[in-house]
Gaa1-domain-containing protein
Amino acid sequence: MSSKAIPEGRNAAPIPPYSEISSKQYNKITLKRKALKLLENHVATLSLVLFIVGLGWLLVLPHDEYSHDTYISENALLPGQTNNFFGENEVNVARHYAQVLESLRTNPIKEKASFVERELRSFGYITATQDFEIPLSYNKVVNGTNAFGILKAPRSDNTEAMVLTASWDSQEANQDNINGVSMLLSLAKFLKKFTFWSKDIVVVIADKNTAGIQAWLDAYHGVPKHDDEQIFVRSGAIQGALNLDFPGTGSYSSLGIFFEGLNGQLPNLDLINTVVQICRYEGISVTLHKPASKLDIYAPRSYTKSLHTMLTTMKYQASCHPSGVHGLFHRYKIDAISLHGVSGSGRFGFQYQKIGILIESTLRSINNLLEHFHQSFFFYLLPDASRYVSIALYIPPVICIAVGLLLISLKLWFSFDDSVAEVELVEDVNHEGKDVKSIKTSVAYTQHSIPLQTSIIVIGLSILGCVLLFSLNLLIVHPITEEISLPLSGIFAFGFPLFISSAVRQRAEFTPYNLQVLRCFALAWTAVTLVGLAALNYSFAVFMGILVFLPYALIQPRSHVLARALQFILTTAISPPSLLLLCSFVYGQGVVELYEYLKYDFVVLFGWFLPLVYLVYWPINVTYSVLAWTSNKETQPSQ
């Protein structure tokens, strides 16, 4: 029995006992090895092809060939099949409330909340107000007062409910939601007239947009946070919610539907389809989000328009920030959307009456439900209000990107010949009319010694990410100013990876073999992370994969100083501090203001964006920074 030479300094594996295999098995093993060898020689090309295929796949999804027409899955909804009663009298009531709210615009929030509560009580609702206070920093708190009322359904045991919400401030910058609140009050008075409701109707006027709705939802479900006042007026399980956002007092050219929730969650597609179908019956122009320009409202569907709509959805999902206050309902398994009036006029212009008919008809459809929305999709992308892409079609791009990184990792792994053992393969052959045994030697298996330092680096950087995340409490107590934000971002972008690299090099023994093992682990870590995130927040995963694939696939330990410096600059350019500076420049916001926005999502709304950055993205990025800045020459730890 023969054996290959064992690399010096490594222990040989024990040679397995003599074994026999058939000729068929031997040929099968040989074929597999040839295929693996061929694959190993073309891994770089194959990985690049997978990345291009994944990117191309994502870009063709908005095309009509890869999307489908939407449809109503729940037959009980019957959208637009009811007689509507919202008429001119209700329009006059809405106009009256718009004038009253205009006069109350500058009044304290408690006065406005008291006014709403009195009006709802006069309609016959069970009413209450809720004060809330949420600390953001040592000298900054978010506080306000919510007003809400509950209309008990006359034909049920009050175990289910529907919610109508509106905030005092519109999601349009520097605009009040006057038409939204006035329509909500008019509808509240109108809905009380009928006895066909089988679900309670809950009306909520929220202060401070997402902060107010978050405080109300937590208190409603018995999980009050911070210093929120508990509420004792409750209804049943909420089946659906509509948020009204109609800024100003004018008319609207189209209806924009916002549906993205907190942390990338989406409502059941049937709720969106119901609203879209009712809009068609009523002649209301409907779009997803807000049109980029007035021309887009009436422009026919095109690939460019569909791509823009799909990427807008993915942007909201990847940011983990809801596109409206409706997005906070999803964490409680409540399907909700926001109806936003796009200001303007035109042949499809509308105001109070069509808004009232739309909401009445939608509530009638939800009222028909016998159980939660469940028949349609919860995972989808929408290139248009009438087209959808299912998860089976949009998940492959991120899988292709992850597999490309994983193949590079596997190539590195199988190139480690720490110790090699061989086995004799015995084959029966016929030689000169006699049966004889032909004995060949072949590699049986290899053993790899995994350096302990590699595991310590990976685990240590993950723990460090936890420390940085929870250090946010220091920023809450001691907030930073705009003047020191830029230097601080630069220090974190360049200094932090350099410090970690220097500390690791002083404490760990970095041989070329150890560095390759670390690179192998980093690539596999990135690939597994992308696949795992795809199930939780697809858009975050695919954007992360597109951003990091080429840099991480190319970075490896090098001996030349210039090459290492270029690699380090590349990893720094895609580090969180650098990306924060880039977003600050693109959106025209200060670094501190932008970070306060992210911190608000984490502290108040319990968003995942900062945890994903600190616990997932940044540790991986720093690992590649260590690889980029470390020479592939053998080094010894400092004594």
The radius of gyration is 31 Å. The chain has two domains: 88-385, 448-629. The chain is about 50% helix and 15% strand.
